[in-house]
Amino acid sequence: MNRVKARLPSLLAAFVAAMLVFNSCSDAENSDSTMVVEGKLQRPWDFDDEPDSQILSRLGRELRTRNDVESSPAIADSTLYFGSHDGSLHALDADTGREKWGFRTRGWIESSPAVSEGVVFVGSHDGHLYAVDAATGLERWSFSTREAVHSSPAVSDRVVYFGSRDNALHAVDASTGNERWSFQTRGWVESSPAAASGIVYFGSRDNTLYAIDVSTQEEQWRFITRGWIDSSPVTADGMVCFGSNDNYVYAVDARSGLVRWSFKTAGWAEGSPAVSGSVACFGSRDGNLYSVNAETGEELWRFKTDNWIRSSPTIAGGNVYFGSNDGNLYAVDVDTGQERWRFRTGAWVQTSPAIAGGVLCFGSNDGRVYALDAETGREKWVFHVGGSLRSLQPVSDITANAILGRHSRCIAMLAVPRM
Q1: For the chain, how long is the longest CA-to-CA vector?
Q2: Could you read off the pLDDT of 135-190 as tens digits, one per residue?
Q3: 304 in a structural domain
Q4: Are β-strands 239-243 and 248-253 bridged in parallel, bridged antiparallel, or unpaired?
Q5: Which residue range or ranges hold the Pyrrolo-quinoline quinone repeat domain (predicted)?
Q6: pTM of the entire structure?
Q7: In a domain? residue 408
Q8: Which residues pair with 347 in a beta bridge?
Q9: Phi/psi class of residue 247: alpha, beta or left (left: φ > 0; alpha: ψ in -120 to 50)?
Q10: Domain limits at 54?
Q11: Burial of 206 per CB tally in 10 Å (0-12, 13-18, 19+)
């Protein structure tokens, strides 16, 4: 223990030096700085409020390049669309995995695409929402918010709704890209909106879920929690279901905003619940997938994984499909919670699976998109967005760390003293 304490100042000094070099690389090309930690690209100041010791530990475990896939795929007309940390929107043949086209933005893409009337809509960290022709990959239009767009768009009645780190929900015309209106909050809007019965519901990092009338742009109600709401709300049977970083999942009345039930987990509930009939399923950073009665919130069963669950589950064919940061994609019986199968990838699985024609598609932070047989979990094809740089040694044994700027493409290799 004394040796560790003696070396800690040197370790911290190396880490600070890495930050200085890293920022210099970014400044040289006028790019915003990011860090690659266990497949999660983060700014040096955006580590989910983790203790310094935990941040340093994660730095040593795994360092990755720029091709993680955290954008959940969308399937339309036998084509799979997804974004990547390489800054591109990709279109693949859903049957073969062959790439049809790629559309390049100026920032990484965590937003999940929405497809409507032959157009793919997706947000980018470069501050734009893009409308791209689904067949050709050519840009139709783009809309600038001047801040990162990680929220996934929702299309309803030819209006595209999405959030931005400018603290606003935006409504733009799907055909022209002209803004119809916007609604300002007091925090980043990372949550993806849900539109139903003339109301759009969305969360904000001001800890609030909002319900806005799309015709009048007037607030109908708001529901305040004790944590960020990055979870995207789901509407079903007159209720709105969503998670919060206060560790709760809530179901509120869609008309009044009054709470119907709340369910406490032991970690942040960042993913969106999946509701099917009388069942609601959702994950938590406590590593559990929960199944509850959708009417009452009473727990039916839970399934334990070995790491956080940030993936939003998908219910289909009697199964619940979801990813975990333990690197697996799981298929679990929706009635019993018994595991059907699991598929191992090389990194975190934070995307939500998309299923069409018996084929399940999802992305991983190992830089790959996988297509599996939904019934058996057998691999059909894999699309590799790019390579990765990994070190699986603990931070006490690692001799060099790689710090990357996403846009500058600068890599600084700095020695870290052994403990």
Answers
A1: 65
A2: 999 999 999 999 999 999 999 999 999 999 999 999 999 999 999 999 999 999 99
A3: no
A4: antiparallel
A5: 68-182, 246-407
A6: 0.78
A7: yes
A8: none
A9: left
A10: 2-64+392-415
A11: middle
Q: Is residue 397 part of a domain?
A: yes
For 271-283, write each residue's pLDDT tens digit. Answer: 999 999 999 999 9
Per 3-state DSSP, the chain is made up of helix, strand and coil in percentages (nearest 5) of 10, 40, 50
In a domain, 53, yes or no: yes
**Secondary structure letter of residue 334 according to DSSP:** T
Q: Phi/psi class of residue 228: alpha, beta or left (left: φ > 0; alpha: ψ in -120 to 50)? A: beta
Domain count, the chain: 1
Residue with tokens 């060099």: 400
CA distances to 106, 131, 319 from 341, in Å:
38, 37, 10
Rounded to whole angstroms, how far apart are CA atoms 285 and 149?
23
CA–CA separation, 138 and 395 (whole Å): 44
SS3 46: coil
